Amino acid sequence: MKYENKDLLDLYKLKAEEHWHTMFNPMLKYLGNLEGKRILDIGCGSGELTNKMAETAGQVTGLDLSPKWIEYCKISYQRKNLSFVQGSATDLKMFPDDYFDIIIMNLVLPNIYKVADMEKIFLEIKRVTRISGEFIFSDVHPILKMTKKEGARRQEYSKGFSYFKEGSKLSVIVALPNKKEIEFEDAHWSLSFYSDLIEKYGFGLVKIIESNYPKNAPKKFFRYSFPEYITFCCKKLK
Ligand SMILES: C[S@@+](CC[C@H](N)C(=O)[O-])C[C@H]1O[C@@H](n2cnc3c(N)ncnc32)[C@H](O)[C@@H]1O
């Protein structure tokens, strides 16, 4: 699986600290008080955000496709109100209808390559979220994907790549601090595709958060001159 590759794992760990400043803190600020809330973190990865939310939330579940990440999370975090399960976002049958107050899905969708799977994911999320519940998901910002090179990152587009071709693939090549280059493949989804899915599955878009560096973020992070990530904050309307 993609995130079980050693080099990619090194990059992931490198980015995790940065993500607190650029993505996780703004998202938690948006959500506000988590007291008593039932939360599902889809594609929880190393579970740092999942664990943080469990400090104050009622009950938090982290779900990931990777058995290794789930094993890692189970060993790393133990709280009465926190559990981790292995599974896919395309099939959430282990959870009842209208169950969660909040669903988080951070940077998972670049790993989904088929429109049919995107539809399954949104359908399942609609089913397990209660009315007025929050659904927050993020992706790499299209502005970054359409920039050939910035900082330690560059992209190469697969044959036939188009911004408007949903699920088009791009190779991302990143130089690690030790100068070693690693390459991985992401799927691209357009903003209008996301907007259509949000509407089709009964959610309303409340806010978009474009990642940025707060003044107090450590200087060691590369300052992108545009947003690296886009976060969609939605509410279930029907
Ligand atoms: C870039 S990582 C993000 C991890 C975490 N959400 C974060 O922001 O730090 C993407 C995660 O999504 C998981 N993933 C990929 N496809 C998935 C699927 N269909 N269902 C559940 N998890 C999936 C991967 O195993 C990986 O842990």
Describe, in plain words, how this protein is organized in 3D:
The protein is an alpha/beta fold and 238 residues long. The chain has a single domain (6-140, 190-236), classed as Rossmann fold, CATH 3.40.50. The chain has helices at 6-31, 48-54, 67-76, 115-128, 142-145, 191-200, and strands at residues 38-42, 59-64, 82-86, 100-106, 129-140, 149-150, 153-157, 168-175, 181-188, 203-210, 229-236. Strands 3-2-1-4-5-11-10 form a 7-stranded mixed beta sheet, sandwiched between helices. A 4-stranded antiparallel beta sheet has the order 6-7-8-9. A hairpin with a 5-residue loop joins strand 8 (168-175) and strand 9. The longest helix has 26 residues, at 6-31. It is globular and about 45 Å long. It starts with 5 loop residues before the first helix and ends with a strand. The structure holds S-adenosylmethionine.
The order of strands across the largest sheet is 3-2-1-4-5-11-10
> How much helical structure, as a percent, in the residues?
25-40%
Give the number of DSSP strands. Answer: 11
The total of helices stands at 6
Question: What are the segments in which pLDDT stays under 50 over at least 5 consecutive residues?
Answer: none
How many domains is the backbone divided into? 1
Note the gap between the termini.
35 Å
Radius of gyration: 17 Å
CATH homologous superfamily descriptor: Vaccinia Virus protein VP39
The coarse overall form would be globular
